[in-house]
Amino acid sequence: MFRVTVDIFSGRNNPTWIIDNEEKGRDLLAAIRKERQIITDVDSGFQGLGFRGLTFELFSDEDSTDLELPATFSITNGAGKDHKKGVEIAGRVIEEMTKYKAITLPEHAVTPIDQKLQKHLLEKLHAYELKPPKIFPPPRQSSRGIRVTVVDEECRNCQYEESRFNPAFWNSDPNVRRNNNCYNYARNWRTNTFAQPGRATGCSHSLTCTSVAKAAICDGLRKRCECLSEKEYPRRLVALVVDPGFDYHWYRKQKAGFWGHKPGQTAAKNVDNSGVIITDPKSCDRGGYTDFCGFFYAGKSVRII
Predict the structure, then answer these.
(1) Separation between Cα atoms, residue 43 and residue 225, nearest integer Å
(2) What is the mean pLDDT of residues 194-202?
(3) DSSP state of 235
(4) How many whole angstroms separate alpha carbon 285 and alpha carbon 209?
(5) Nearest 5°: CA angle at 114, between 108 and 115?
C-alpha cells in the first residue's frame, strides 16, 4: 500500500488517498520505476499557486527496496525529464482515485475524494501538460529590523505593523513547512495544524470570498479600515483570494513594500506565479485564484487552529 497526494491547494488540505489494491499498486509503481526519469525529489520543482504535482509515500521498506524506488517521491512537478510520460502516469492515477475513497483519512473532512474534485484535478493536469510552470530560485531573507509601524495609506486613521521577511522560519524544518499553510503565514502564527479559517471559533465556511472572509472574521480578523488599537500590536495587513469552489489563499504585507505568502505545504516566498516580487496581491499572477476578496487586519488576539 502507499499514499498519493496531489499537491495543488494552499488553504484547504490537498487531495490524498491510499491505494490498497496490491496488484494495481505494484503495477503502477513498476510503471513509474520503468520511467525513472519522471521521478523527482519532494519539494522540488514548481512551488507557486496551483498544480504542483503528485507525491507518493510508500508504506513498506520492502516495497521501496524491491521496486528500487525512494520511500517518498514526486512526479509532474515541473522538475522531471519526460514531461509527456509523467502526465500520462499522473492522469492514470487521478482517474482511479475515487475507487479508493473507502479508506477515510482526516483530510477527507475538508477535501473529500469525489468526482467533482477528480474532474478539477484532471483539468489542472491538462493545463500543466499544455504549459508547464516556470521554476524560480528560493527567496532571499531580509536583513534589516524586525518590525515597523506604518500608517495605512488607504485609511489614514489606521496603523499596522510590517515585519521583516523571514522565510527560513517556515521553510527550514520540513515538518513546519508541511503542516502550516497560507493562513498560518498570514496570521504569522505557526500551529502545525494546517490552520483553517473559523476552526478555532466553530465557524465553518464554503470556498467563496464571502464565506471564507466571514470565518476569518469569526477568528478575530477585521476588514481593512476597521482600525485596531495598539493593544492588538503587532497588527498585520493581509489579503484574501479564492479559487472559486476549490480553495482560498492568503498574503501578508512585509517590510520593503512587498507581500509574502506560503502556498499550502510549499515554502514561504515573496514572488507570484511569474516569479515577480508581489507589490500588490490584487494584480499579481495568482493562477486560478481569480477572485480577489479584500484586505483585512489581523491583530494579536486572533486565534487560529
Answers:
(1) 38
(2) 97
(3) P
(4) 18
(5) 160
Tally Cβ neighbours within 10 Å of residue 185: 26
- Name the 3-class secondary structure at 164: coil
Instruction: Give the model confidence (pLDDT) of 51-94 as tens digits.
Output: 999 999 999 888 778 889 999 999 999 999 999 999 999 999 99
Q: Which residues contact 280 (CB under 8 A, 6 or more apart)?
A: 259
pLDDT of residue 143: 60
For residue 42 the three cell numbers come to 519532494
Q: Which of 294, 202, 207 is nearest to 248 (CA)?
A: 207
For cell 515585519, the residue is: 163
Residue 293: CB partners within 8 Å, gap ≥ 6? 209, 210, 212, 213, 239, 240, 241, 242, 248
**Alpha helix positions (H), the chain:** 22-34, 61-67, 83-95, 115-130, 168-171, 174-179, 182-187, 209-219
Q: Which three cell numbers stand for residue 73?
A: 517521491
DSSP state of 182: H
In this prediction, residue 142 carries a pLDDT of 66
Strand ranges for the chain from DSSP E: 2-6, 16-19, 54-58, 72-75, 147-151, 159-163, 222-223, 236-243, 247-253, 259-261, 291-298
* Cβ neighbours of residue 143 closer than 8 Å, sequence gap 6 or more: 164
Q: Which residue has the cell 493536469?
A: 125
pLDDT tens readout for residues 88-134: 999 999 999 999 999 999 999 999 999 999 999 999 999 999 999 98
Q: Which residue reads 520543482 in cell numbers?
A: 45
Question: In whole angstroms, what is the distance from residue 264 CA to residue 184 CA?
Answer: 10
CA 69, 70, 73, 79 dihedral sign is negative
